[in-house]
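pinning this so it doesn't scroll away 📌
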Amino acid sequence: KCLVPIPADIDLKTGKPEAAIELGGRPTGLVADGQGTVYVDVVDTDEVAVIDTKAMAILTKWALGNSTRPTGISMDAAHGRLFVGLRSMKVSVVSIVDGHEIAGVNINAQIESTAFGNGKVFVACTDGNVRIFGQNAAGQYVIEQTIRAGEMARAMAVDGKTGTVYVPALDFDASHRPVRDSFKVMVLERK
């Protein structure tokens, strides 16, 4: 329930990190702006905590609404937007200036994680699909594509320059048990 900074030059013999930042709930993800600010989604309190990494202090917390249960967070730093995946089956597009919701995108499936790359938002869901959305010419966020990634394809990494998405996946048998040696990393590329 806290964020523990671990400096690159930590003493491996003592293993002592700096003081922890108490978040008041369980974090499920974080994203950094590269300028010293980290945004952490806190599932227990339905908030995004904004942290100054230089001062190692919480600057503010933004409420996401009741029973939203954030599950993943990503950012478009160039446009000042956070994409917060919610258990309420939507992605909340949040301003990094003041935390207000700019838009909500209905996903129609439980969300596990979000990622941003190459101008698109990628959303991994418990139904085994990755949904991709972006802004249309009118500025509205719309789902552009749904790709079947397979069961347990719930985490992602996105190459921010190419938009290539890497999704770890696992096959299951009829009893919903993992199939031995079926682990793979799917590479999703936009054509």
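📌 and the second one:
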Amino acid sequence: SHKLRDISGFRAALTAYELLPSRGVGAFAGLLIAMEICVAAGLWLPGRAATAAFAASGLLALYAGAIAINLARGHRDIDCGCAGAAADRPLSGALVLRNGFLLVAALMLTLPATSRPLMWVDAVTICAGVAGLALLYAAADGLLANAPKIAALARDRPLRSRMEEQPARVDTAASERNPKPSIRKHEDRHA
């Protein structure tokens, strides 16, 4: 839906990939948007889910390939174009993996299904599984969206190392009340 709301932003993201001639980017952006709409509709149409899932796997392979090509070129600062203008998400290997997992999931939908009557336990299992996968996807997507911020935090020195560099403050009153014997005093007692 973000691609429909910001077609020019999606076109700019495709241009940044530098995989297409500049004259063809606009038409290809429109084609990709139309294909995604057809895939989404096809997944809900009875008897068309397998075909739509196969088309979805093709799109996911295309996206993963485009990301992998640019990663191989060293172009990590490109916005992936998968989250819209609100989230500038640079390319990463994690995006290739995510698209790979989604591709496998889409291909699983193309497998023939066996029919049997569904019981209430099946409905509960399906609902729980879908909810769990949606939460897992949202968590992974949130981590991918915040990966640059997490990396920036990791580059900063950890709090512990900063605290270790500060000179230790000694409480002189406490050390006078509970003096700790030094090694030398200990050695003098045994001599």
